[in-house]
Design a protein that fits this description.
The chain is of the alpha/beta class. It contains 11 helices and 7 strands. The chain has helices at residues 4-28, 30-42, 57-75, 82-102, 149-152, 182-185, 188-193, 221-245, 258-268, 284-290, 299-302, and strands at residues 114-123, 126-134, 154-159, 168-172, 197-202, 250-255, 272-278. α9 links the parallel β6 and β7 (272-278). α1 (4-28) runs antiparallel to α3 and α2 (30-42) packs across α3. The longest helix has 25 residues, at 4-28. 31% of the residues are buried.
Length: 303
């Protein structure tokens, strides 16, 4: 006799098997996707706002690198079961009216940050400062819920000139980043040599702030909204603090997940003179839905 528990167990193992096969196929598709992407970009109509690129070993290689990291990232991110996603969606539907009513007002005025720790660090001969800081709480998307300490204690790494008069460049990383190697991949030393004070805040749920079992962004819509609001509040507090160190022009850049956050900050902070959004994740949850392909056949029902 088969019980419902036995059926559920078989269903879970089937889902895991399908998901594993799908993720392995993503690795196999890295080079074909890279070639198609580079070829498509080279055939873009010249009258478009984004001009066509050249097609060659370099563009294919750059596309392959991007595709590889997307595939690798997908392999370590589990797609939840359908009932879990439905619970998130239903919860969001219950809170939607209240959250929508807040509008842009959900982003409170920036507050003064409080530095809890400052450390001098070295990475391959490059010296930088790391600060841990706190700022005021943000709106909770769930009534009565409190933020965990992992979310409210922020971290930023920076290379700041000793003399005054240097412009600031604050760079917001993408999903899955926020580690020390961002200083290398985002060319912190080179930007500093060009005369910038460079600052790299760590987003909630990333790097040193990653909670056990916690992921941002995730399929939990309300948590995504709340942590985005917290990220914006932290960076705005950081910008206010930067002015006390050296009151010079501020530019904000962001890549992927950091792109829309940079855009939000630029719209809220009058001191930001320029903004750069690189491959911005403009619709977070649409992007999450797009990548449900790594979940196998069950992805269709979740989507």
């Amino acid at each position: 006799m088969t019980t419902s528990d036995d059926s559920d167990d078989r269903g879970r193992w089937t889902n895991r098997f399908e998901s594993s096969l799908t993720r392995l196929s993503l690795i196999a598709e890295v080079m074909p996707r890279a070639v198609v992407s580079a070829r498509t970009a080279s055939r873009r109509p010249p009258h478009r706002s984004i001009p066509p690129s050249s097609f060659g070993v370099r563009t294919v290689g750059e596309s392959a690198l991007d595709e590889f990291f997307i595939a690798a990232f997908s392999m370590v991110r589990a797609v939840p079961d359908e009932h879990v996603v439905r619970a998130y969606v239903n919860e969001c539907a219950r809170e939607a009216v209240a959250v929508k009513a807040l509008g842009v007002g959900v982003n409170l005025a920036p507050t003064e940050l409080s530095i809890t720790r400052k450390l001098r660090r070295n990475l391959g001969g490059m010296s930088y400062d790391r600060i841990d800081f706190t700022c005021a709480p943000v709106y909770s998307m769930r009534a009565g819920a409190e933020e965990s300490e992992a979310d409210t204690v922020a971290t930023a790494r920076m290379l700041v000139h000793q003399d005054k008069g240097h412009p600031w460049l604050l760079w917001v990383h993408g999903a899955g980043q926020g580690r020390i190697d961002d200083l290398l991949s985002l060319r912190a030393a080179q930007l500093h040599e060009l005369g910038y004070n460079v600052v790299f805040p760590v987003l909630p749920g990333h790097g040193l702030r990653r909670r056990r079992g916690g992921v941002y962004p995730s399929f939990d819509v309300l948590t995504n909204v709340e942590l985005t609001v917290r990220a914006v509040a932290e960076v705005r507090a950081l910008i206010q603090w930067m002015a006390t160190v050296d009151d010079t022009p501020v530019s904000v850049g962001g890549i992927s997940l950091g792109g829309p956050i940079a855009g939000l900050i630029a719209g809220l902070e009058p001191s930001v003179e320029s903004v750069l959004a690189v491959v911005p994740m403009l619709d977070l949850h649409e992007t999450m839905a797009h990548h449900l392909v790594r979940g196998g056949d069950r992805a269709g029902s979740i989507h």
